[in-house]
Amino acid sequence: MSLKLEESWKAVLEAEFKKEYMINLRSFLQSQQEEKRTIYPANRLIFNAFSHTPFDQVKVVIIGQDPYHGANQAHGLSFSVQRGVPIPPSLQNIFKELQTEYKGFQFPPHGDLSSWADQGVLLLNAILTVEASKAGSHQNQGWEEFTDRVIQTLSEQRKGIVFLLWGKYAQAKASLIDQNNHQIFMAAHPSPFSAYQGFFGCNHFIKTNEYLVENGEKGIEWGLG
Fold it and tell me: What's the Cα-to-Cα distance from 145 to each of 26, 39, 51, 142, 176, rounded to whole Å?
């Protein structure tokens, strides 16, 4: 199985691919492929978040857990789904919050967040692959170690990034981030089970743009065509 990383990320993470955990992860994914298991997202999209958002262009990080496990959903961007499939409940709630924060925000006809990624929003799942219909099936195979290293590297080598940590799983990543150099916003997860416990009304999208502008960066255009 070929795992190719975008060049700017490869420059800062190349050493990770030589470590034992990544060698073991590769072997695991290879064995899944040989057993003819259906894995999401497609091989070419596993590192899609990195392809859309080069290392030196990251302004915002939104951390998810693992990819959607239904057909044609996952495409390597946290919370995002491919066009033509129904918008999942958590993403619907993200859009509802955006409608509350921005009066002109139009509820989009799709759930493809690629335009956010292209503006500098790293849509990072902690686990980058999953077996079809088996949520969390690729936990503890090495992905978490890799994506923790991604967060640490951003924290150490960049400044002024906004980290949006929604839910306890994402919030546990706060310890990897230097809060003297970056901004962390926390809230409940946008899932229907928890959105009313602090996600709705968090104003994270407005707060993110205010922080970016204050630090000399262009804000994110959250609207989706």
Answer: 13, 20, 20, 5, 12
In this structure, what token pair is assigned to residue 7? 């060049």
Identify each DSSP E strand in the chain by its residue range.
Answer: 39-40, 60-64, 121-125, 130-131, 162-166, 183-187
Look up residue 221 and give its two tokens.
């255009």
> Helix (H, G, I), strand (E, B), or coil: what is residue 197?
helix
Q: What is the pTM of this model?
A: 0.96
Over the stretch 26-56, which tens digit does the pLDDT of each residue have? 999 999 999 999 999 999 999 999 999 999 9
Do you find a cis peptide bond into 41, omega within 30 degrees of 0? yes
Helix (H, G, I), strand (E, B) or coil at 217: coil
CA-to-CA distance for 9 and 5, rounded, in angstroms?
6
Instruction: Please list the active-site residues.
Output: 66
Cβ(153)–Cβ(57) below 8 Å: no
